[in-house]
């Protein structure tokens, strides 16, 4: 497992200035034209699995929480991230839900006392964490106590391995990995499927472009 210094360095890229263009560059241009998985497809995943008692881990800007259709008007929504800029941005964006916020390194056990959830999302998180997917999937073990029985954990991640990647995707992925923004050179579909099958009684994975969209039931 990578050191805390590497984990902190990897999330430090998400400054206020970077977050200000995140929706346009990542969720708009990159998803549609480089990774070949439009954000509308990820939003559909949210709408399919999000519950009235939800935790979002690796919160970005709160884009999907802002747009998804919760099953009730006043859901319990919680945010978990190591980056305070992301927590503040997402919390402000969905302020209408009065979200709980938790600053936490997902590659360490959760020691805070937090009431469990019926759904947990980990969108675009795996590929930003250091190390091979088989190791960083330990975050699933740490989140497990926070998921109620029959609860659903879902999300998406950008893979390499046997994914179909055009030249722009290969080039940008190489740049991101060199800069430490991504760490997915050893992430492939088989590793993701194995990580989910070891921990959940039921799961599903779909691939669009070089993005894997997944869900798993406790």
Question: Please, could you describe this protein's structure?
Answer:
The chain contains nine helices and seven strands. With 218 residues, it is an alpha/beta fold. Helix 5 links the parallel strand 2 (76-81) and strand 3. Residues 55-153 form the Methyltransferase type domain. GO terms for molecular function: methyltransferase activity.
- pLDDT below 50 for ≥5 consecutive residues: which ranges? none
Major sheet: size, sense and barrel closure? 7 strands, mixed
Sum up the overall morphology in one term. Answer: globular
Q: Whole-number radius of gyration?
A: 16 Å
Lateral strand order in the biggest sheet:
3-2-1-4-5-7-6
> Count the strands?
7
Number of helices: 9
Question: How far is the first residue's CA from the last residue's CA?
Answer: 25 Å
pLDDT averaged residue by residue = 92
H and E order = HHHEHEHEEHHEHHEE
Computed structural class: alpha/beta
What are its keywords?
about 220 residues; alpha/beta; 9 helices; about 40% helix; SAM-dependent_MTases_sf; MeTrfase_VrtF; Methyltransf_12; EC 2.1.-.-
């Amino acid at each position: 497992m990578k050191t805390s210094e590497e984990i902190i360095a990897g999330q430090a890229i998400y400054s206020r200035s970077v977050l200000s263009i995140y929706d346009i560059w990542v969720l708009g241009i990159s998803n549609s034209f480089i990774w070949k998985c439009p954000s509308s497809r990820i939003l559909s995943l949210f709408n399919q699995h999000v519950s009235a008692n939800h935790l979002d881990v690796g919160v970005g800007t709160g884009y999907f929480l802002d747009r998804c259709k919760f099953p009730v008007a006043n859901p319990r929504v919680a945010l978990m991230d190591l980056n305070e800029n992301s927590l503040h941005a997402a919390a402000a964006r969905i302020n209408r839900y009065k979200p709980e916020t938790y600053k936490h390194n997902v590659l360490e056990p959760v020691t805070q006392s937090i009431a469990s959830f019926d759904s947990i999302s980990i969108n675009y998180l795996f590929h930003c964490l250091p190390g091979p997917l088989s190791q960083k999937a330990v975050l699933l073990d740490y989140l497990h106590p926070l998921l109620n029985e029959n609860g659903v954990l879902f999300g998406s991640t950008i893979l390499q391995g046997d994914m179909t990647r055009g030249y722009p995707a290969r080039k940008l992925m190489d740049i991101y990995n060199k800069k430490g923004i991504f760490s997915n050179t050893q992430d492939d579909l088989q590793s993701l499927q194995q990580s989910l099958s070891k921990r959940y009684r039921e799961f599903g994975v779909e691939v669009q472009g070089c993005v894997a969209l997944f869900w798993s039931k406790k």
